Amino acid sequence: MIVLFAFAAFAADPEPPGEVVVVTGEAVEGPDPAATSASVTVLVPDARTPASADVGALLERAAGTHVERMGGLGDFAAVSLRGASLRQVEVFLDGVPLNPDGADVVDLSQLPLAAFSRVDVWRGNAPLSFGASPIGGVVDLVTRDEPGGRVSATYGSWDTARATAFAAGKHPLGGSGEAGVDGQAFADVLSTRDDFTYFDDNGTLYNGFDDHLRPRGNNDKLQATAFARGGYSRGSWRFSLADAPLYRDEGLPGTGVVPAESSRLTTARNLAVFQAVGCGTTWTATLTGWHLFRAEELEDPEGELDGTPRDEVDQGHTGGVRLAGVWAPLSWLVPSATLGARLESLATDEHLRTVDEPIRQRLAANAAIGADVRAFGDRLLLSPAATLEVLDSSLLGDVADSQAGGTSAASPVLIVPNPRLGVLVKPLPFLALKANGGHYLRAPDLTELFGEHGTLEGNSGLLPETGWQADVGARFELPNPQAVRLSVDAAAFWLVSENRIVWVQNSQRSMTPVNFGDTWVQGVEGAVSLSAFDVLDSDTAVTWQLSRNLTTGSAANNELPRTPPLSVNEAISVHWQERARLGYTFSYTAANYWDAANLYQSAPRVIHSVFVRIQPTPRWPRVELSGLNLADTYTQVLPRNPADPTDPSRVVAAVTDFSGYPLPGRTFLLDLSWDL
C-alpha cells in the first residue's frame, strides 16, 4: 500500500464572536444554531457515530441533505442541499474551498471521516468569512486538533481493509506561555475489492427471463490520504502552514447494465495552505492563501465507457488568496468584510490523439461586506450582506462568447452583485425564529465548458446559473436541560433558478451539461435531536420537497432529475457509560427520476444498519461490529411506465442510487481503535 505523509502546519478560521456551542455528547466549538439566522447543523462524529460511517453517512443526519452515491464502499459520493445541484454546494476544508464557486463536484469518499472533529452544514445563507455565496449552501469540514492520538484498523466484507492514525500536540516556547508551537498529523489508507453481488436485468426491463445476479467486477480501489499541520503563535498572532495529499487508484465498473471490465482512473490531489490570524480586543483578521492541484488519468483501452478508447490526463490548478475581517466597535454592531481572488486552470493531454488541447485559465474575484445588528437585548438580529462576484474569462483562449460565462467578446468580464438578508428573532430564550433570502450566481466551470475524461462532454453554449433562495424556520431547545436534552429544527425553503445546469446522458453513454431555463424547488425540512438520561441518543431528519422544470417543451412541468421528493434518516443508540453501545440507523429515499423526460425512475431505497461497540474501560481498545444494509434488498417492483399513472403493469427493477449504479449488498465490518 502507498502511504502518503507530509508534515507542515495549518490553522482553521476563527469562530465568529458569540457563536460557540456545546454539542450533545462532546464539547465542540462551532456555530450556534440558535445565535444565527442561517439554517446550520453541526454534525459531530462522536460516540453516537459508528466507525463504519463515512462523511456522506454523517451528512445524511442533517435535514435538507441528499447524498448521491455510485455504488459500494469508497465509491464516489456527493451532497445536494435543498434540491440544489451537486455543483451548487461548496465544500470547504477548514474554511478553504475544495470547489470554489461550484467549480467542481467534491467526492466525499476521498475525505476520511476520522480526520474531522465536526462538519458544519450551512443551508442557504452562509457566513461572509467563507468568501462564497453558493446557491445551495456550504459544507465545512473541520479537522481534528485535540491533543493526543488515536489509531484504528478495520476489516470486513469484500476484503475491505482500512487503517488510520492521528496525533496532535502543543508545546510552549520560553516558558512564558505567550508563544508556542503546535502540530497535528493524520494518515488513512483504504483498500477494497468491492465485488458485491447485484441484480442485472440485462437492459431489458420488460423481459424477466434474462435477469440474473452478478458480481460487481472492476470495482476495486486503493486510496491513501494524509493531513498535517502545525503553527507558531505569539501574542495575538498565529501563523500556520498545511498540506493535504491524496492518491487513489480505482477501477471504473460502469453502470450495472453496461459494465466496464478494464477501465481505470488514477487520481492525485494536493492542497497546500498558508494562514495568518490576528486577534485584538475588538477585531479579528485572517489572511489565507492556498493552492489546490488535481490530476486524473483515465485509461479505457477498450472504449467500454462511451465506445471510444481513451488514455488521457486532466490536470487542474486553483490558487487563491482571501482576507477576512470582523470588527466589533459596539456591543450591538459587528461589521465584517471579505476580499478574495483566485486563478484556475485546466489542461487535458489525450495520449491517443495528436491534437493538443490548449490550457484553459480563468480569473475570479469577490468582495463581500455585511454586519450583525442586534437589538432588544439580543432578541433581534439583522444580518444584511452583499457580495460582488467578478469573473474574467479573457484567458480562456479562442472560445465561443458564451463560454466566457455569458459575456461578449468585447467585454469578457462578468460582474454580478448578490444581496442577501438574514433575520433572527428570539421571543423566548429557548425559541429562535429565522428568515433568510438572497440572490446567488454560479458560472459554468471549466469542465462543463470544455469536458473531461471523454465521457464528460463540454458545452460551449452554457449560460451562468442565477437564482433566489429563501427560507423561514424555527429552532426550539428544551430549557434547563438536565436528564433530557432536546432540540427541534424546522424550516420551509424555496429555490428559484434560471439557466440551471444539468448533466444529461446521451445514447453514447456520455454526459453533456445543458441549461434547463427556469426551475424551482420548494419544501419543508425538520430535525429532532434527543439525549435522555445518559442512556439514549436519537437524531431524526426528514426532508420533503417538490421540484419543477419550467423549460418549455417535452420536459415542461416535470420533476428535476435526481431530486427525491422525500427522504428520512433516523439514528438511534443506547449505551451504558460508553462501555457498551448498540446503535441502529434507518434511511429512506423516495423514488426519483434520472432524466428530464421523467421516463426512468429509480426504485425507492430503504437501508437498515446496526452496530455494537464494546469498551470495558477507557484504557482498553474499542471493538465494534457493524452491519450495513441488513435487508440486502436487490430489487423493487415499480410501475412499468411512471409517466402514465393509468398503466397498471409492473416490472422488477434493480435498487440503485445514481443513474443505474447498484448499491452494495449486506456488508459487515469489524473495527478496532485505541486512544493513545
Outline the structure in words.
The protein contains 2 helices and 35 strands. The protein is mostly beta strands and 676 residues long. It has a single domain (39-146, 159-675), classed as Beta Barrel (Maltoporin, Chain A). The strands form 6 sheets. The protein has a 22-stranded antiparallel beta barrel. The protein has a 5-stranded mixed β-sheet with strand order 1-6-7-4-5, with no helix packed on it. Strand 23 and strand 24 form a beta hairpin. The radius of gyration is 24 Å and the shape is globular.
* Count of helical regions: 2
The CATH superfamily label reads: TonB-dependent receptor, beta-barrel domain
> Into which percent range does the helicity of residues fall?
under 10%
Percentage of residues in DSSP E strands: over 45%
Task: Give me the secondary-structure topology.
Elements: E1 39-43, H1 55-59, E2 65-69, E3 77-81, E4 89-93, E5 96-97, E6 116-123, E7 137-143, E8 148-156, E9 160-173, E10 179-192, E11 197-200, E12 212-215, E13 221-234, E14 237-251, E15 264-279, E16 283-300, E17 310-327, E18 333-350, E19 360-375, E20 380-392, E21 413-428, E22 431-442, H2 446-450, E23 465-477, E24 484-498, E25 501-505, E26 511-515, E27 518-532, E28 536-549, E29 566-576, E30 580-589, E31 605-614, E32 622-628, E33 635-639, E34 650-654, E35 667-675
Parallel strand pairs: 4-7
Antiparallel strand pairs: 1-6, 2-3, 4-5, 6-7, 8-9, 8-35, 9-10, 10-13, 11-12, 13-14, 14-15, 15-16, 16-17, 17-18, 18-19, 19-20, 20-21, 21-22, 22-23, 23-24, 24-27, 25-26, 27-28, 28-29, 29-30, 30-31, 31-32, 32-35, 33-34
